Amino acid sequence: MSRLATLFSTTLSLLVLATPLAEAAALKAPTLPPVDSKSAPAPLPKPVNIRFCIFDPVGANGQIANLARDLALQARKWNLLAEIKVYLDERVAAEDFKAGQCDGVALTTLRARQFNKIVGSIDAPGNLRNYAEMKTLIRAMANPAFQPMSITGRYQVVGVVPIGSLFVMVNDRKINSIEKAAGKRVVVLDWDPSQSKMISAIGAQPVPSDLTSYGGKFNNGQADIIAAPAMAYAPLELYKGIGKNGGIFRFPLLQATGTIIIRRDFLLPKIPDLDERMSQVRDYGLQFIDSFVETLTAAEKDIPQQLWMDLSADDKLKYARMLREARIKMTRDGIYDPSMMNLMKKVRCRHEPSNEECSTFDE
Q1: 319-346 confidence digits (pLDDT tens)
Q2: I need a surface site. Which of 27, 57, 131, 243 has the fewest CB within 10 A?
Q3: What angle do CA 119, 120, 123 make, to 5 degrees?
Q4: Domains (range + CATH), the chain
């Protein structure tokens, strides 16, 4: 593979991580499905108060905030009294969580990587190809054997939530190859300088942005390329950036997720059987996967069909190889955890054992 292709593949992975995942999910979150009482956690012996920090860029009336309050009502049945604090700024939510102002927090997996590198490595380029594979991964992580990997010092991952396939959206269908992305303007997160460096390395122009202006810079013509899930298309009005000449590549760069984390050091004194309780919570949470996936696939179907652009079989193979090379390189550079890369490879090969990667031993 050429040096340009290698650089672009690594850059593409960084571009993917720049997507406002939680913002998209906040705008159209699924409703709670009927609860199977048999799998619901057993009530605590006495009431326990906790503080939970939720990132919802829409604010207190956003769908993620509303969903959190619905879950808090369910938790009361288990003697868990949750106070929900909503944040417009994900960075502030993460900092308050670190400072001990929250017992738990809900963040994008990108931001959650600082608390648990194993789980935080899920959103790697080309991690999983579809929602069926994502379901398999989430079920594997609910296995008790995975629990030790969910704990990092004082922090513990409670669950992972699918947010959607990430697609490249362009304002000009002529941007249909890696080479043609050179010289174009690409939205990047302003708090991650490595993204700007990698975009510049391939001759493209980084357009720094925070989550609040991410979609707007594409829509008002300041950027030519953006990576986003289908759920962001209508709420963020990305059709304005796509315009009459643009389109969306029907090729998922990755399956994106959000992560829920707790302060184990705060909750263990309040709930001595915390590990057993967490196992019950994970089993209970598996009921929600299908509901989330149905919402995600519905958002993809809602996008006008004429906007979708299909890659040839050869291009799909080429880009899958490039994403894989980027993933391997970033793992070797210490960005991603090898154990999660190995687990996701096992998931992919379970679903598609004939894939060429399944005969290799580099992940």
Answers
A1: 899 889 888 988 998 989 999 999 999 9
A2: 243
A3: 105
A4: 3-20+166-253+303-349 (no CATH), 23-164+256-301 (3.40.190.170)
Q: Do 64 and 55 contact (CB within 8 A), yes or no?
A: yes
Which of the residue ranges 33-47, 119-133, 146-160, 255-269 would you say has the lowest mean pLDDT? 33-47
Give dist(CA 40, CA 135) in Å, integer: 20
CB atoms within 10 A of CB 206: 23
Quick one: pLDDT at residue 23?
A: 38
**Closest-CA residue to 214 (of 27, 54, 61):** 27
Take residue 326 and report the two structure tokens written for it.
């980027």
Amino acid at 67: L
- Give the angle subtended at the CA of 147 by the CAs of 146 and 149, to the nearest 5°: 70
What distance in Å separates the CA atoms of residue 9 and residue 280, rounded to the nearest whole number? 40
Alpha-carbon gap, residue 145 to 275, rounded angstroms: 12
Q: 10 Å Cβ neighbour count for 361?
A: 6
Q: What is the distance between the alpha carbons of residues 71 and 57, in angstroms, rounded to a whole number? A: 19
Section 214-238 average pLDDT: 91
Token pair 């993620």 in the structure block, residue: 64
* 309 DSSP 8-state letter: E
Question: 79 — phi, psi (to 5°)?
Answer: 70, 25
Structure tokens at 191: 């708090």
For β-strands 185-189 and 247-249, DSSP reports them as: unpaired
pTM value? 0.85
Question: What is the C-alpha R_g of the chain?
Answer: 20
**Site of tokens 């193979």:** 317
Main-chain phi, psi angles of 29, to 5 degrees: -80, 150
